[in-house]
Structures are given as C-alpha cells and as structure tokens.
Amino acid sequence: MPLDRFDRLLLNLVQEDAGQTTERLAEQIPLSPSAIQRRLRRLREEGVIAREIAVVDARKVGPSTLFVVSLKVASERPELLSELRGWLAAEPQVQQAFYVTGEADFVLIISAPDTAIYDALMARLVSDNPNVERFTTQVALSVLKRGLTIPVPLNEPD
C-alpha cells in the first residue's frame, strides 16, 4: 500500500501519542478530522498500524528491573529455533527478542521485579529449551531512552 506524505506524517504523530483526537491531529496535519479518521481506519485495516498500546510508567506500578540477555543456542535447526521463538513470544516478561548475528544468537530485553524472579524465568527457559547452550546477562542500571517508534520518512522512498 503506497503511503503519501499525509499518511507518513499521521504515522509519526500517532506513534508519539495514539490517544490524540482526530481534531487534535487535524491541527497538525492540513486535513479534516473525518479525512484523518478515514486514513487511520485504512492504516489499521491494511496492517500498517499493527496495534495501539498504553505505555505504563514502570516506577508507578511497582519495582521493575530490565535485563539485557544474550542467548547462544547449540543448534540452529529450524524446528529448534521455532520452538524457542514460540517460547519467547509467549513469555510476558520478555519485552523484546531479536535473532541476531555475532557471538549471540538472540538478544532479549526482559523486565522482572527482581533478580529472584529473573533467575526463576531463566531456569525455566533453560529447562524448557534444551537447545539453549548458554546465556549472559547485563542489568540495566538506568534507562536513558525507551521506545518503539519507527521514524517514518515524510517523502516516499525512490
């Protein structure tokens, strides 16, 4: 689906705050609120907007520590990787998971209230996935930036 300049501007704005009204968006994009509403519906239907979520301030809901984990697998056989991917996707504490090149095979961002809960999660991960050869953990001491925004260029690529 081709995206025009208005679609691209709209995508950038709703990634920053999906709760903006169409009237508020119309103040920033030279389109009517009804035109913006039609574009948003189309972007959702076409899957360009995959989902809309609420960003929760972790400090206000209880303790939370971020762990950056590098996983090394013993074998990259497709069925074993698929099993591990499914396990990671189903685990709510795994915030992000990346299949990567280099020393590690996967890099994970895990959120847990404390190290005991993190240790239990990793014990389950290794127990449920014997293909996991080893993992290393880094604890985030502070969060400088956190987000999922995809910068959408305003002009169509050539």
UniProtKB/TrEMBL annotation:
GO-annotated cellular components: cytosol
Pfam family name, one: AsnC_trans_reg
Domain HTH asnC-type, residue spans: 3-64
Example GO BP: response to amino acid
UniProt-recorded Gene Ontology molecular function terms: sequence-specific DNA binding
Highest taxon, organism lineage: Bacteria
Keyword set includes Endoplasmic reticulum: no
Annotated PANTHER family: LEUCINE-RESPONSIVE REGULATORY PROTEIN, TRANSCRIPTIONAL REGULATOR AZLB
Protein name (database record): AsnC family transcriptional regulator
Organism from which the protein derives: Roseateles toxinivorans
